[in-house]
Design brief:
The protein is built from 12 helices and 20 strands. The protein is an alpha/beta fold. Among the domains are: about 230 residues, Beta-lactamase, CATH 3.40.710; about 80 residues, no CATH class.
């Protein structure tokens, strides 16, 4: 036994001290194929080879690492939000807030009676809703989740303030006033299909619950029975015609929603399986200012305030005749904010108010979950703040001036018709996205802005992508999906420990497939592996 131990010790001694250094076992990281080779191989796949691809990778200082079609134009989809939110954070500032007011306009008889209108004045607050702010990372959210707050809670709080003034009778209307912005509910080339759904909700300075209604369809009690539905908020606004049949267990669940533009008639039809979970959809509100007025009128009534008139909206129609391209291409001499000019109304009395969360909190939500409406509100606020005009064209003009004048992006490298990327007219080059990402790293607001980007495998629109190391938690990027276009741009921590900037865009991929997304994710993995 002792002899065996001595032999083992001798072998160990030889293994560690007697072998030449070059004979020792070494663990080397596998040397990957060059990025150019890997990308070429990936794009040969017949499932993606006919699509139009653009890729640009740089160091953090902007020095190019890899480029393919980087100067060609692509639909950015929600990559557009990067440009809008960066401009908003830089020009409006992280602490900016907006105050929604309820005022009485007319003649008061003491505190109890008003001969005139109660006006809910929209200030472009994106978060008059049940959303919890600041944004909470998924890992920090309570499990199980607590009940969601009332989506009309802030409107209810303001109704309480009105009741506390002693007002009892309103001989007039309840008005939803969104005249801060011109009434341009949809930007150019938003599709008619999108207008039904919450993600395509109309833009209004008086935004309520993201300008959408949650519709929940539940199977009937037996096969052949009509399914039931419920609305949240439960406000009578749409006339709903429902014809949803309950079919056998494991049968097809296929539910359709139809509403013509400008119509209050919402048709829901199809089938739902007897054992199916409730089907939940977000449906856009046709006129958010009118909807808010309807909701406020019901709340005042519930608080014992008699309203003799009706609930209605007050809009300001656009008057510009030049068109977006002509307006947005005009230079902006000064990108600093203008002083707000408040129009004083001597017959106006403040009854209630609500102040929004700071801009930076809304910005995180906007980029994390890719909230289209909120990005559009940023665009309109930029027009108001810099040019004194909250139109889509003025907002686009400010964004263009910022991107070309301060960021230094080539004016021919982009054109934006909106703030969210829903417009099919939006175009951008991968090198423009990379240029913005590089510029942001040099700015005092960079940490706040980067914090708003989805994290691979963790949260937002990247929660289900890149679920494993080495990319999980090492990718900070904005997604984009629109029709047959997809984009992903951001910051990537690579195998070497260095961080690179990248933008990958694809147009004209095969409809209703995910092959392009899978290939895009493999390209990102190749970038991480080779840098």
């Amino acid at each position: 036994m002792k002899r065996f131990a001595v032999c083992c010790a001798l072998i160990l001694s030889i293994g560690t001290t007697c072998l030449p250094a070059n004979a020792r076992v070494r663990h080397k990281r596998h040397k990957p194929k060059p990025l150019k080779v890997q990308v070429a191989t990936l794009l040969k796949d017949p499932a993606v080879s006919r699509a139009h691809w653009g890729i640009y990778v740089t160091r953090m200082d902007g020095k190019p690492i890899y480029a393919m079609n980087e100067a060609q134009l692509f639909q950015p989809a929600s990559n557009n939000k990067m440009f809008t939110t960066a401009t908003a954070l830089a020009l409006l500032g992280p602490e900016t807030t907006y105050e929604t007011k309820i005022v009485g306009q007319g003649v008061f008889d003491g505190h109890a009676k008003l001969r005139g209108n109660v006006v809910l004045v929209g200030a472009g607050d994106a978060n008059l809703s049940g959303r919890t702010l600041p944004y909470v990372e998924p890992v920090d959210r309570p499990n199980p989740a607590p009940p969601a707050p009332d989506p009309l809670r802030y409107l209810a709080q303001m109704a309480d303030q009105v009741a506390a003034t002693g007002l009892k009778v309103v001989n007039g209307d309840i008005v939803g006033d969104d005249t801060l912005f011109p009434w341009e509910p949809y930007a150019e080339d938003w599709t008619i299909d999108d207008a039904v759904w919450g993600y395509g909700a109309p833009v209004s300075a008086l935004t309520i619950n993201d300008n959408q209604i949650k519709v929940t369809v539940t199977p009937g009690a037996s096969v052949g029975a009509q399914a039931t539905f419920s609305l949240l908020p439960a406000i009578s606004y749409y006339k709903i015609v429902s014809d949803i049949q309950t079919v056998g267990a494991n049968g097809p669940t296929s539910i359709f929603y139809e509403r013509l533009p400008g119509s209050k008639d919402l048709r829901i039809y199809g089938t739902i399986a007897l054992n199916a979970s409730p089907d939940v959809e977000e449906i856009a509100i046709d006129d958010p200012a009118e909807y808010a007025a309807v909701a406020l009128k019901a709340m005042l009534d519930a608080r014992g305030i008699e309203v003799t008139g009706r609930a209605r909206a007050e809009h300001r129609l656009p008057t510009d005749t030049q068109g977006l391209l002509a307006v947005s291409s005009q230079p902006v001499a000064d990108l600093t904010q203008r002083a707000a000019a408040a129009a004083a109304n001597p017959a106006e009395k403040l009854l209630a108010s609500h102040t929004s969360p700071p801009l930076e909190e809304n910005l995180v939500v906007t980029n994390k979950v890719s909230q289209n409406l909120h990005a559009e509100l940023f665009l309109h606020h930029l027009g108001i703040a810099v040019l004194g005009d909250g139109s889509t064209a003025s907002g686009a003009r400010v964004v263009r001036a910022f991107l070309t004048g301060r960021v230094g992006i080539d004016p021919d490298d982009f054109i934006f018709f909106d703030g969210s990327g829903l417009s099919g007219h939006d175009l951008v080059t991968p090198r423009a996205a990379a240029k913005l990402l590089q510029y942001a790293t040099t700015q005092p607001w960079f940490a706040d802005w980067k914090r708003s980007l989805p994290i691979g495998g963790e949260d937002g629109t990247l929660a289900e992508r890149f679920p494993k190391l080495p990319i999980k938690d090492h990718l900070f990027a904005k997604t984009g999906t629109l029709g047959e276009a997809r984009a992903l741009s951001g910051y990537l921590e690579c195998a070497s420990g260095k961080t690179v900037i990248f933008s990958v865009m694809v147009d004209n991929h095969t409809p209703r497939t995910h092959a392009d997304r899978d290939t895009m994710d493999k390209i990102v993995a190749a970038i991480a592996e080779t840098n």
